[in-house]
Amino acid sequence: MEEQHGPGWWRYGPPWWHRNDGDPGSGTRTTRWPWLSTVLITAVVLAGSSFAAHAQPHREAPDVAGRVLLVVASAVLLWRRRHPVAVAFATSVITLAYLAAGYPYGPVFLTVAVGCFSAAVAGHRRAAWAALGLLWAGHLLIALWLYRYLPPAGDSGASAGQEIVAATWVAAVVAVAELARVRREQWARERADRARAAQRRADEERLRIARELHDVLAHSISVINVQASMGLALLDKDPEQARTALTTIRAASKEALGEVRQVLDTLRAPGAAPRAPAPGLDRLPELVEQAAAAGLTVEVRGEPPSLPPGADLAAFRILQEALTNVVRHSGSRHARVRFDQGAHELRLTVDDDGPATGADAGGTGNGLAGMRERAAALGGTIEAGPRADGGFRVLAVLPARTRETP
Question: Are 294 and 226 within 8 A, CB to CB?
Answer without folding.
Answer: yes
